[in-house]
């Protein structure tokens, strides 16, 4: 395994106009190195949607992104300081520009959820399984079941 691409990657950021594009490149690089390029489109879409929610719903736009390589695929977590919990809308205005992010996440991810933090904030996470994840024994170590960290 390449020492520059560990099983875990985290970044603290303030989400600006160009942040999603740069983060997608980082995500793609890690997935390529982890030999899971087939997940790139889905994971990039999920990351983009979670960062868009930070822009829309978190006043200071600050968050932490965490990528975890797992035995069966990848887990992504976005943690922010907002107490507002996301929920998928059951009534969408077909003319509205937003409101579909969690529906997209639900469609593309194998699992997703929200973990509120005591004292404020939350982590929104999703997991995507790779059909080839077990094929490469050199993918160790994995970050499976590693608890997310919040500073």
Automatic annotation (TrEMBL):
| Keyword entries, A-Z | Kinase, Serine/threonine-protein kinase, Transferase
**One Pfam family name from the record?**
HATPase_c_2
Q: Where is the Histidine kinase/HSP90-like ATPase domain?
A: 21-126
What InterPro entries does the entry give? Anti-sigma-factor_SerPK, HATPase_C_sf, HATPase_dom
Q: Name one GO molecular function term.
A: protein serine/threonine kinase activity
- Keyword Transferase in annotation: yes
Q: State if Transcription is listed as a keyword.
A: no
Q: What is this protein called?
A: Regulatory protein
């Amino acid at each position: 395994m390449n020492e520059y691409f560990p099983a875990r990657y985290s970044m603290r950021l303030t989400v600006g106009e160009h942040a999603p594009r740069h983060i997608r490149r980082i995500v793609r690089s890690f997935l390529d190195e982890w030999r899971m390029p087939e997940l790139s489109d889905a994971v990039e879409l999920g990351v983009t949607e979670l960062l868009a929610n930070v822009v829309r719903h978190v006043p200071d736009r600050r968050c932490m992104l965490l990528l975890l390589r797992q035995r069966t695929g990848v887990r992504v977590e976005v943690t922010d300081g907002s107490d507002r919990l996301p929920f998928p809308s059951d009534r969408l205005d077909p003319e509205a520009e937003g409101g579909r992010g969690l529906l997209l996440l639900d469609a593309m991810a194998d699992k997703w959820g929200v973990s509120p933090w005591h004292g404020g904030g939350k982590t929104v996470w999703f997991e995507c399984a790779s059909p080839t994840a077990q094929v490469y024994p050199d993918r160790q170590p994995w970050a499976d079941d590693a608890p997310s960290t919040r500073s």
